[in-house]
């Protein structure tokens, strides 16, 4: 079963300069559906599709095992404006 820690570890290995990761198991704990928010300045200058592709490529094997996966990607500046 896929866990939040596995997702966190894979993202940390694949995407440099991660400032924050929020992982939500939306399948009530059965590990079949996740929403992920990734905050990294690696996303600077990239559009939404390019950002999500970075995350999806990092989690290619894991995403293939689950039912649903959603991600949102922000730079630190974008994220700080959202959480004010």
TrEMBL record:
Family, as annotated: Belongs to the BolA/IbaG family.
Protein name listed in UniProt: LAME_0H19878g1_1
PANTHER family xref list: BOLA-LIKE PROTEIN 2, BOLA-LIKE PROTEIN-RELATED
Any GO BP: protein maturation
Cross-referenced InterPro entries: BOL2, BolA, BolA-like_sf
Superkingdom per UniProt: Eukaryota
Family annotation (Pfam families): BolA
A cellular-component GO term for this protein: nucleus
GO molecular function: 2 iron, 2 sulfur cluster binding
Organism taxonomic ancestry: Eukaryota, Fungi, Dikarya, Ascomycota, Saccharomycotina
